[in-house]
Amino acid sequence: MSKSNIIKVQQLSKHYENHKILENIDLDIFESDFTVIMGPSGAGKSTLLQNISTMDKPTSGKVIFNQQDLTQFTDKKLSQFRKKDIGFIFQSFNLIEHLSVLENVCLPGLLLKSESKQQVIQRAKQLLTGLGLDGHMDQAITHLSGGQKQRVAIARSLINQPKILFADEPTGALDSTAGIEVLDSLTLNNQNGQTIVMVTHDLKAALRADRILFIKDGKIFGDRNFTPYDASQIKARRTEIESWLQEMGW
Amino acid sequence: MRKIIKSLIMGQKTFMVTIALLTFVSALTSMTILTAYRANISQYRSAYRTDQLPDVLVKMDNDNDITTGIKSLKNVKNVTSKVGIVSQVMAKNDENVALFISNDVSNLNLKVPDNHKIILSSYLKSSDNFKVGDTFKIGQQQLTVQGFYDDHLLGSPLFKYKQGIVSKETMQILQSQKGQQKSQLAFVNAVKKAENSSNLLSDYPDRLQADLIYDKGYIQKAYTMLPTIVALVIILAAVFLFGICLFVMRFALLSGIDKDRQKIATFKTLGMTNRQVNLAYVMSYLGSNLVGLFGAVVASFWTSNLAFKFFWQLNGLTSAQHVPINIIIVSIITLIMVGFSTIIILLSLRPVGSISPAAAFQGSQSKVISSSGHLKLTKSKMPLQIALAFKDYRQKIGHYMTFTLVISLFVFLSLMIMTLNQGFKGKINGLFGLPSVDLIMQTPNDTLRHESLQKINTITPIKSSGYNQETKILLSKDVIPVHRYSQIPHEIKVLSGHQPKQSKDLLLSSNLMKTLHLSVGQTVRVKTVTNDSCWYVSNN
C-alpha cells in the first residue's frame, strides 16, 4: 500500500543575503514515517526543517499541506497551523522556566482552546505518565535532568495530537542514556502512527528512521527508505545505515 | 495568558516595580496637587462669599471722616470703615511686622479680647512664630497674645498689614500714646466691578493721601497665585517623573524583548500570534501602571488633604476643611497616563513582529534576525572604530539614562525655582495688579508731603499714595528720618557690614557716614523726642 504524503515541498530555496542555504528542494514527507534528515554541519538540515515546519519563510518555493501552500499563510493562519497540526522538539528543550512541568505541557493545549482546561490537564497527565514523569508534574523545570526536560518537551509537542512532529537534534544536549530514553519515546509514538521529521547528526538517532534524507550543500544528496525500526535487528540496521551514509560521504 | 505574562515578566520584576513606583509617585503627586489646588480655589470662593469681602480697601492716615466722602462717589454702593492704629512689631524671626490694630470685630465672628491682650491674624502664628502668651510693646503699652483667628482679608502673607484685635479700653490707651498715627480702613463695595479699582476713587477729594491696599482682583490673585506657582512646579515635576516612567517602560520593553527573543519565538512555535504576545506585554506593563495608579488614587484621599492644608497655610489660613477626592481629576489623570503608556508600549512592541519562530532554535537567531544591539560589521559602511563607539554608546545610554533623567529633573526644578524667585523679586505688587511705587519721598512734614503730592499730580496723575511711619532723630544739627521696615527694600544695597539684626542696630547711608566720619561698629548717641539711647552702626 503506497503511503500518502502529508507535506509536499516544491522548489524550496532559502537564501541569507547572498548566501544560498537551500537550493530548489523537492520533497515529500509521508504520513506515519519517521524521517530523519542528516548531513554535514552547515549543509542546511535545520534550515530545511525550519522552512517545512513554517518556523521560517523560504525565499522561494512552496510547502503544501492539505492542498494549501503554507508559505502564503497569514500570521493568524500560521499560528493556528502550529497549534493544531504540528509539534516541535528543540535541542535546547525551550521549556518555559517559570512554569511547572504540567503547565509547560498544558500550554499549547490551552492556547488551542479546542478542549476544556480540565480535558487538557487530563491528557497532559496521561502523556507525562506515559513518558515516566508522573512524579514530576508539579516540579519546576529547573529541577529536572536533561532527559526529563526533553521528555517534557515531547509531551508538550504531543498535547494537541499533531499530525507531524518536528524534532531538531533532540538528543544533542543529552547523555547517552537520556538520549536513548528520548529516542524510545519518539519511536513508540511513531509506532503508534505519529509522523516524525527529525534532524540529527547522531547515528543512534538515525537508526530509528524509516527514511533518511542526506543533505549536502543545500541539496538533497541522498534519500533512502529503511525497514521499520526493530530493536532486535539493531546491529544489522546499524551496518546498513552506516554503509549508506559512508556512500553519501558521511 | 496569565502564565504567559508571568513567564515574560519574571525576568523584569525590577523594571515592573520601578514602573509601578514611578507611576504611583507621578500620579499621586498630580492627583494630590490638582485636587488640593481645585479645593483651594473653590474654598477661597466660598469663604469670599461667606465673609462678603469688599471690592476695594483703602487706608487713610488722617482724622477725616472717610465713609461719607467715599460713599458720595459714583459707582460706590456702600462703605464701612474701621479705625485703628498702624504699628511695627518685632517678630521672633527679627523681622518687623506691620500691624493694623483695631477693636472692631464686626464680620469676624470673634469675642473681644481682655484688656492689654491682643488676638492676632493666624498668619503671624505660622510665619512669624508668635504664640499665645507672647508679649510685645506698642509704644509703652505691653500687649499679651491671647489667641489667633483666620482672616481672609488681612491675614494673607502678601498684605503689608496684618490685623490685631484689642479691647476698646486697650485701643483707647494705644491711641492716647504720643506719636501714634490714627489710621482708617475703608471697605468699599462698587455698584459694578470696576476695571481699574483706582478709577473708583478718581473723584475722591483726599485721593492723594489714600493708599489703595487691596482690590477684589488682588485678593483673588493673592489667594491663588502662590498655590498656582507651587502647583505648577510640582505638576511639572510629576510630568517629568512620568516621562521617566515612560522611558523606563520603553527601555524595559526593548531590552526585555531582546533578551527574551528565544522565549517569544518558542511561544510562536507553540502557536501564539504576534497579537497574543503583544497582548501579554501590554497587559503586564499596563498592569504595573494600573497598580501604581490604583495606589495613587487610594493614597490621594489622604495626601490631597495634606496638600490642601499646605495651600491654605500659604494663604495665611489654618482652618482647612476636609477635601473629598475629585473624580474628574482622578479620571483625567488616569486616562492620560494609561493613554500615554499604551502608546509607548505599542510603539516598543514593534520588534516582536520581526521575531521569527526560527529564533527559537538555539544559535540560529543571529542568522535570522539581527537585533538592534548587534553590529553588522559586514554591512556597515562606517569605519570600525566609529561603529564600535556607536554600539558602545547605544548599549550604555540605556543603563544611565534613568539616572541622568532623575538628575536632570532636580536641576530643572532648581533652575525653575531660582528663575521664579528672581522673576518675582520686588514685582509682587505689579504682578497682582496693585500700583507699583514710582516715587519715594522723605519728609517729616505732613503739609509739605501733601503739597508735593498735589504738585506731582498736576504733572502726572497719582493713582495711589501712602507713607510709612517714621521716627525723626537728631544727629548733630540735622533732622534725619529713621525708617523702620519689616524687610529692607531691595533697592537699598548693603555696601558693607550687615542688615540691622539687633534692636539697637542702625543702617546709615554712605553719605551720612562720610559726613559724620563714622565707620561700621561705632556707637552713636541718638536723641529722639521721647528717648535718649545709644545705637550701633551696623552698616554703611
Description of the structure:
The complex is a heterodimer of chains A (250) and B (540). With 250 residues, chain A is α/β, with parallel strands linked by helices. Chain A has one domain (31-43, 74-213, 222-248): 3-Layer(aba) Sandwich (Rossmann fold). Helices cover 37% and strands 26% of the residues of chain A. Chain A is built from eight helices and ten strands. A six-stranded mixed beta sheet of chain A has the order 6-7-8-3-9-10, sandwiched between helices. In chain A, α3 runs parallel beside α5. Chain A is globular, with a radius of gyration of 18 Å. Chain B has 540 residues and is of the alpha+beta class. Chain B folds into three domains: 2-47 and 221-361 and 396-424, no CATH class; 56-192, no CATH class; 469-539, no CATH class. Chain B has 16 helices and 14 strands. Chain B has helices at 2-9, 13-51, 66-71, 122-127, 168-176, 197-200, 216-259, 261-269, 274-314, 327-348, 350-354, 365-368, 384-424, 428-432, 446-459, 510-516, and strands spanning 56-60, 76-90, 96-102, 117-121, 135-138, 141-149, 162-165, 182-190, 211-215, 470-475, 478-483, 505-507, 523-527, 532-539. In chain B, strands 5-6-4-7-3-2-8-1-9 form a nine-stranded mixed beta sheet. In chain B, strands 12-14-13 form a three-stranded mixed beta sheet, with no helix packed on it. In chain B, α2 (13-51) packs parallel to α9, α7 packs antiparallel against α13 (384-424) and α9 runs antiparallel to α10. Chain B is elongated, with a radius of gyration of 33 Å. The termini of chain B are far apart. In chain B, 32% of the residues are buried. The A-B interface holds A 16, 46, 50, 54-57, 75-76, 79-80, 82-84, 88, 90-92, 94, 96-99, 103, 107-108, 111-112, 156, 168 and B 3-4, 6-7, 10, 262-263, 266, 268-276, 356-358, 360-362, 364, 367-368.
